[in-house]
C-alpha cells in the first residue's frame, strides 16, 4: 500500500491545534488540582494524606500505562487510540466531578490517568506522521509544547477562579467541553503507520505493576514511612526482573527492536527524566516555601510558567537553525543556574532573586523539552513513534515522582534550599551527558517513513 498523502500545512493546523489541546487538557488536570486541595479536603471530609492520594493516584496510573499507550498507538493506529483516550478522559473527568466520596474520586482519578496515558504518546505519534520533515516536525512539536505548556500558566489562576465560583468539582467539569473541542478539531482521520502484530498483554501488565510499586515506594519514602518504602521497593525490584524475563520471550516485546540499542533515544529519555525532576522540584517546593494563598503562589510561579508557554516557539526556530542539541544544552545550562538562584532566594527571602531564578528555570524547560522530544522522534523508526512517546513520558513521570518524594524528604524550614540544589545537580549531570552525546557524533538524521502498513 502506498503512503498516505500528507495534507497541506494550512489544512494540518486545526489537527495540530487539537492534538496540542489534548495534551493541554492532560497537563491542566495536574496543575489546576494543586489549588483545589483545601476545597476537596473540606467537601469530602478528608485530610492531607487523602488529598495527596488524589494527586498520586493519577500520576501513578499515568506513569504505569504510558508504555502500553505507546504500544497501542503503534499497533492499533495512533488516531484510534487518541480518539478513545480523549473521549474517555472527558467522561472520566465528569465522573470525578460527581464523586460522592474520596474512594470514588480515587477510582475515577486512576481511570483519568489511564486515558491520559492513551492521549500523550498517540498525540506525539500523530504529529510525527502529520509532519514528516525534521524541520517542520520540530516547529510542530514546539507549537504542541507551547500550547500544552500554557496549562502550567493557566492552571493555578484558572483553578483558583473556578473554585471560588463553583467549588472543586468545576475543575473536572472543565475537561468535558475541552474534550469535545479536541474531537471536533481532529474529526478528520490521520493516517499512521502501524504494526500488524498482536499485543502481548502480560509484559505490559507486569510493567504497570512494577512502575506502580516503584511509585508507591518513592511516595512512602518521601513521607518517611521507611518499612513500607522498603517493602514496595523490593516488590518493584522483583517485578522488574519478572518484566525483563517475560519480555524476552514475548512475541510482541514492550520495546520495539529498533529501540532496544538506540542509544540516542535512551539518552533523550534520561534527559526527559532530569528535566521533569527539576520542574517538579520547583512546582512542589515553591508553594510550601512561600506558604501563601493559591493566587499569590500562582503569581509567584508566573515567571516560569509563562515562559514555558511562550518560549517553545523560539525553540522550534533554534532547532530548525542549529539542530536539537543546541537548545537542549542551553536548557541544561539555564536550569541549574535558575535553581541555584531560587535556592539562594528561598534561603534569604529575596523575591526579586526568586523571580529571576524562576525565569531561568522556565527557559530551561522551554528550551530543552521540545527539542529533546524532536531529538528522540527523529532518531526512532516511524513505526516506533508511539513507543517513543510512551517511554519518554513514562520516564518523565518517574523523574517527577522521584522529585516530589525527594523534596518531601529534604524540605524543611531549616533547609529550604536543599531540594533546589539537588535538582541543580541532576541538571548538571544532564548537561554532561549532552557533551558526551555530542562527542559521539551521532548523525542528525530522521528516518524515512515506510510505504506499507498504513492505518487509515
From TrEMBL:
Entry keyword Ribonucleoprotein: no
Record's bilayer topology term: Multi-pass membrane protein
Domain of life where this protein originates: Bacteria
Domain Major facilitator superfamily (MFS) profile: 15-442
InterPro entries assigned to the protein according to its UniProt record, in alphabetical order: MFS, MFS_dom, MFS_trans_sf
Alphabetical UniProt keywords: Membrane, Transmembrane, Transmembrane helix, Transport
Subcellular localization: Cell membrane
Protein name (database record): MFS transporter
Gene: mmr_2
